[in-house]
From TrEMBL:
Chain ranges passing through the membrane: 88-107, 114-133, 168-194, 214-237, 272-291, 303-325, 331-351, 382-407, 414-432
Pfam family, any one: YfhO
Phylogenetic lineage: Bacteria, Bacillati, Bacillota, Bacilli, Lactobacillales
Keywords: Membrane, Transmembrane, Transmembrane helix
Protein name: YfhO family protein
PANTHER family: INTEGRAL MEMBRANE PROTEIN, INTEGRAL MEMBRANE PROTEIN-RELATED
InterPro entries: Uncharacterised_YfhO
Coiled-coil features, chain-numbered ranges: none
Keyword Transmembrane helix attributed: yes
Domain of life where this protein originates: Bacteria
Length: 515
């Protein structure tokens, strides 16, 4: 997955190591500045860890640490000069993608005993899902994706009565790395434990014991993470949790009609759930629910668990609940990485079981109906062009043929597995090429601006500074160059300050203020 990601990002001009620029998310508009602050705090001035005058007019930084800066991968940034932070962040992203792939591969072998072709290809599909390649710039969300398969293995062990110390440690790390996605993961794990407990139920005594193990382990993980989440919670109570932005106006009825397009090749929309994990993965997921060699109890429980995980697509209240009770701005459906996980999880489960010809015919018919709905309904709602539709249908039919040939034992499993890997590579490459923008030379800009700021009198640095120029739309350059600025953007900012800016006639809204 790492090699595929490296090559695809190089071709798509988002590989910082090869002269590209990641324009998705807020990486160059926000996160590079935070990582410069991360470097300065840990290497030069630890006193600014809780309060910084670079934070707008000066403010508590606990929320920024809890959301952006506490991933264990972030220590890699300390090995690079500030001007090479883009390259450092690319390496961090690359490592998270590799860990996500490796952890899913290990999970599929541990729980479903998959052979290498399918374990590797499904791991690549998970690590390079449309969610990951679209939101790659929001690197702080990737820890949850990287660690989730491992957590699922440990929760499965807990549901069988085996206490898991690795679960405690890894869940604590996940919470510390990013409290926001950790909330989603914790909610998911509660549902997954109930799901597994039902499947592994033997008697009430064991169920109560296993539930106690899960509760103790989870609470212990939370206690270990308290050094991070406690100050973060107090910071959020001062601002974010005390302020409500407008809830998005989403027609969930239309979203469900458009979902087939988001599960097939090529179609990407920032305003729809990003659910593509490969067409073969989708076919296998559908086949799982019609495979009579899998007990009906397992399939029905899996269906209910799927509805639980996808409940955020049912109505606005559940949608906001999955987003930690705060409506997301700009990037919607942030929790759907959990849905992509269960799709690949059930595909892995399906491959671990025999599939009869009769069941294969039923799942084939269901997938063809799915394609018909995509062509006659989803395509029209999204105004998809003919070329995109043709390509998606072509890959879908090839994928279906390969799955049928595999289950009838006419081809080696490496053939459909290799095609799935190729599809994920093409998906990433085409998407990144379609959003390609001119590369930004952040390294030169940082070096030149730092030289300019170093020439200012020392007395000037003790006062408020503001520049008449900036890189892209980065309102946090006071973090990058360590001066007392007057503008900043962070989802953990105090909205009362932005209201104050507005009263002064300055640009300010929600979580940003600009001088």
């Amino acid at each position: 997955a790492g090699l595929i990601f490296f090559i695809a990002s190089w071709i798509g001009s988002i590989n910082f190591l090869m002269g590209g620029t990641i324009h998705s998310g807020d990486l160059i508009d926000q996160y590079i500045s935070f990582f410069a602050y991360f470097q300065h705090t840990l290497l030069h001035d630890f006193s600014s860890i809780s309060f910084s005058f670079s934070n707008g007019l000066g403010g508590n930084t606990a929320g920024n640490w809890g959301y952006y800066l506490l991933s264990p991968f972030n220590f890699i940034a300390l090995l690079f000069p500030t001007k090479f932070l883009p390259q450092a962040l690319y390496i961090i992203i690359l490592l998270k993608v590799m860990v996500a792939s490796a952890s899913f591969c290990w999970m599929s072998k541990k729980l479903h005993h998959l052979a290498d072709p399918w374990a590797i290809s499904l791991a690549v599909a998970y690590a390079l899902s449309s969610y990951v390649i679209t939101y790659i710039g929001n690197l702080m969300w990737l820890d949850a994706i990287a660690f989730l398969p491992l957590l699922v293995v440990f929760v499965t062990q807990l549901s069988k009565g085996r206490f898991s110390f690795p679960y405690i440690l890894l869940l604590a790390i996940t919470i510390v790395a990013n409290y926001y996605t950790a909330f989603m993961v914790c909610l998911f794990l509660v549902g997954f434990f109930i799901y597994q407990s039902y499947l592994n139920y033997s008697n009430w005594k064991n169920l109560l014991r296993n539930s106690l193990y899960f509760s103790i382990a989870s609470l212990t993980a939370g206690a270990l993470a308290a050094f991070s989440i406690a100050p973060t919670a107090f910071n959020l109570l001062e601002n974010k949790l005390n302020y409500s932005l407008a809830s998005p106006n989403i027609s969930f009825f239309h979203v469900w009609q458009e979902l087939p397009a988001t599960m097939l090749f090529y179609t990407r929309s920032w305003q729809l759930p990003l659910l593509f994990v490969g067409t073969i993965t989708l076919i296998l997921t559908i086949s799982f629910f019609f495979n009579r060699s899998i007990p009906i109890k397992v399939r029905l429980a899996s269906l209910l668990f799927s509805l639980f995980t996808a409940s955020g697509l049912l109505n606005g209240k559940l949608y906001i609940l999955w987003h930690a009770s705060q409506p997301p701005q700009l990037f919607p459906y942030r929790f759907v990485f959990l849905i992509t996980f269960i799709m690949v999880f059930f595909a892995s489960y399906q491959l671990a079981n025999h599939n009869s010809k009769a069941d294969l015919k039923i799942s084939t018919a269901c997938f063809l109906f799915f394609l018909a709905f995509y062509f006659f309904r989803s395509r029209k709602l999204l105004f998809l062009n003919a070329a995109a539709c043709f390509l998606a249908l072509l890959i879908a039919l090839i994928s279906l043929a390969l799955v049928i040939l595999y289950y009838t034992k006419k081809i080696n499993p490496w053939i459909p597995a290799a095609f799935l890997i190729l599809e994920m590579f093409l998906s990433a490459t085409i998407f990144w090429n379609n959003i390609k923008q001119p590369s930004t030379n952040i390294t030169n800009y940082t070096a030149q601006t730092q030289t300019f700021i170093n020439q200012l009198p020392k007395t000037a640095k003790d006062q408020r500074l503001a520049k008449s120029f900036l890189l892209n739309n980065d309102r946090g350059e006071s973090y990058t160059f360590n001066y007392r600025g007057a503008e900043v953007f962070s989802s953990n900012n105090d909205p009362k300050i932005s209201d104050f800016y507005s009263l002064l006639g300055l640009p300010g809204y929600g979580y940003f203020y600009f001088y």
